[in-house]
Amino acid sequence: MKVRYFISLLSFVLLANCQQKKIKKIAKIPKEPFFVVLGVAQDAGYPQIACLKTCCEKTRVNPQSERMVSCIGLVDPTSNQSWIFDATPDFTQQTELLSSYTPNKTLPDGVFLSHGHIGHYTGVMYLGREAMSANRTPVYTMPRMLNYLSNNGPWSQLVTNKNIQLKPLVKDSLQVLNERISVVPLEVPHRDEYTETVGFEIHYKEKKALFIPDIDKWEKWDRSILDYIKKVDIAFLDATFFKNGEINRDMSEVPHPFVEESMKLFSQLSKKDKNKVHFIHFNHTNPLLDESSEAFKSVLENNFKVAVEKSIVTF
Questions:
Q1: Bridge partners for 209 per DSSP
Q2: Per residue in 243-290, pLDDT tens?
Q3: Which residues pair with 199 in a beta bridge?
Q4: DSSP symbols for 270-281
C-alpha cells in the first residue's frame, strides 16, 4: 500500500509540474504573431549518424547539446493558428513543441515545404497511416514538389489516403493564410535533383520575415539578398558551413554561403539591418553549434544573430 501510495503521489507531482510548466509557457505567448525556432541543424541533425569526430562526441558527453533539424514555426495567437516551415525528421517533437503555443491543437494549420532534400520534407511521413493517419493536413508546395509527392511512393500514399491535402504555390505570388498573415515563395538556386527550391517571405500586416534555409551561393541568385534584408524585419538565413575547408571533401559539391562569406557581404549593412539576420541550418561540423566557440562570438561581435532552438522571435 505504501509503495502504491508513493507511486500515485509521485505521478501527481510530475503531472502537476508538467501542467505548471505548460501554463507558464503559454502565459508568455506574445499578443502578436511570432516565430518559434524549432530546430537549427542541417538535414542530418546534430549529432550526425556515425560521426565519431569531436564535434559530435560532445553530444554524447552532454546530450543537452543535441539539436533538431532546421525548422521554424509561425504562431498567430489571435486566431490560435500555427504553420510550420519544412517537415523535418524531427517532425514529431517539433509539432509537439509548436502545439504548446496553440491550446487544444496538436497539429499546425499548414506545412510549407521548401524543397526535396531529406531534412525538409520527409517529416510528412508521420502524417500517414503508420503514424497518426492525419485527415487532409494542408501541405503547401511548389509545382515540382507537388508532382514528386503525388507520383512517387511512399509519399503518394499520403495523397491517395487523404492524410495530406496538397496546396499549390506559385513563385512570387501571395498565399493568404488569414486576414493578417500571408506567404510568398521565392525560388532560389540549389541542387534541385527532384524539386525546385524556395525560401519564404512571410507577411504580417506591414511587417515581413524571410526564411531561406538552403541556397547555393548568394551571388548565384538573380536577386539581391542585401535588398531583401533591408526590407524585412527578420531574416533566417542559410549558415550550413562556417568556412571553406570545414569538411573533408570538395565543398563546391555542396555549395552554400559560408558564414564568413555572408558576414563579409553583409558588412556594408547598417547595424540595425545586421541585427535582423539569424543564421540557421548548421552542419554538424559548424562551430556555431557551440555557443562557447570563437566563431559564435565573432557572429555576435559583428552584430548578427545565431538562431537558438526553442527560442521565440518576434516581428
A1: 202, 234
A2: 987 877 877 777 899 999 999 999 999 999 999 999 999 999 999 999
A3: 186
A4: -HHHHTTEEEE-
Question: What is the predicted pLDDT for the residue at 14?
Answer: 42
Q: Using CA atoms, how far apart are residues 126 and 144, in angstroms rounded to an integer?
A: 22
The CA-based dihedral angle spanning residues 140, 143, 146, 151, taken in that order and rounded to the nearest 10 degrees: 180
Structural domain total, the chain: 1
- Asked if 133 and 160 count as a contact pair (C-beta separation under 8 A), the reply is no
Query: What gap in Å lies between CA 206 and CA 32, rounded to an integer?
Result: 13
CATH of the domain at 243: 3.60.15.10
Q: How far is CA 283 from CA 59, 87, 214, 260, in A?
A: 14, 18, 12, 15
* Residue in the structure block whose three cell numbers are 560532445: 58
Return the residue matching grid coordinates 511512393.
153
CA distance 294 to 44: 24
* Distance in angstroms (rounded) separating the CA atoms of residues 196 and 218: 17
Backbone angles phi, psi at 211, to 5 degrees: -130, 105
β-partners of residue 234 are 209
**Residue 152 lies in domain:** 30-314
Please state, as a whole number, how many other Cβ atoms lie within 10 Å of the Cβ of residue 167.
14
Strands 137-141 and 111-112: parallel
DSSP state of 309: T
Q: Establish if 9 belongs to a structural domain.
A: no
Which cell is 51 given?
560521426
Within a domain: 22:
no
Asked if the structure places residue 20 within a domain, the reply is: no
Q: What angle do CA 135, 119, 113 make, to 5 degrees?
A: 50
Report the DSSP pairing between strands 81-85 and 71-76: antiparallel
Is residue 53 classed as helix, strand or coil in its secondary structure?
coil
Is 14 a member of any domain?
no
What count of Cα atoms within 13 Å lies in the side-chain half-sphere of residue 72?
29
Q: pLDDT tens digits, residue range 130-186?
A: 999 999 999 999 999 999 999 999 999 999 999 999 999 999 999 999 999 999 999
